[in-house]
């Protein structure tokens, strides 16, 4: 296991660190990440911590992900503490507390859905504005072509009359 972590650390740094340095650097980085994720959970941002962890795990192969994830002991404990705290709170408040937590979870989901809808509407509005600007520019170009065409026609007619008068 340690050797694979060493190799992983050496691979990640492109050979900049030797296997021993890679292991030490890996531990420092995972400790810092573990502490950051733990603080997020303890400060009420468990979903943000979960999203951050998922983003970090994206680029790792399964072995690397397993090694990395196994080092996040404080984060795991913070999640367990949070779940226990929520359970105690619900139990202490009885049926109403449980209903309140369930309602809160549903409201959080609806808020997230509404936020997503708001962002989609804003994006559509931006597209609509851009289309309106493009249409205005297109209509202006048609007007410009018409004006130029009329100007040239008038010049041609005027120049034709001038020639007729000189004959």
What does this structure look like?
The chain has two domains: 1-71, no CATH class; 94-167. The protein is mainly α. The mean pLDDT is 80. Helix content is 89%, strand content 0%. Helix 2 packs across helix 5. The termini are far apart. It has helices at residues 2-12, 19-42, 46-57, 62-70, 73-165. The relative contact order is 0.05. The longest helix has 93 residues, at 73-165. The protein contains five helices and no strands.
Helix count from the secondary structure assignment: 5
Sheet with most strands? none
Outline the low-pLDDT stretches.
Answer: none
Q: Give the H and E element order.
A: HHHHH
Work out the number of β strands: 0
Write down the overall geometry. elongated
Mean pLDDT: 80
- Binned, the helix content reads over 70%
User: What proportion of the residues form beta strands (DSSP E)?
Assistant: under 5%
Distance N to C terminus:
104 Å
Q: How many structurally independent domains?
A: 2
Gyration radius (Cα, Å) is 33 Å
Label the structural class.
mainly alpha
């Amino acid at each position: 296991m340690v050797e694979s972590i060493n190799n992983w650390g050496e691979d990640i740094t492109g050979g900049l660190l030797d296997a021993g340095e890679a292991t030490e650097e890996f531990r420092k980085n995972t400790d810092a990440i573990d502490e950051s994720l733990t603080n997020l959970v303890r400060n009420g941002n468990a979903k943000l911590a979960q999203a951050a962890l998922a983003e970090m795990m994206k680029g790792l192969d399964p072995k690397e992900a397993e090694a990395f994830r196994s080092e996040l002991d404080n984060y795991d404990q913070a999640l367990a503490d949070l779940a226990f705290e929520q359970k105690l709170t619900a139990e202490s408040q009885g049926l109403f507390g449980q209903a309140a937590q369930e309602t809160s979870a549903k409201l959080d989901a609806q808020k997230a859905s509404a936020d997503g809808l708001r962002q989609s509407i804003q994006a559509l509005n931006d597209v609509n504005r851009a289309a309106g600007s493009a249409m205005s520019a297109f209509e202006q170009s048609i007007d410009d072509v018409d004006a130029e065409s009329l100007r040239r026609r008038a010049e041609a007619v005027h120049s034709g009359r001038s020639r007729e008068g000189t004959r």
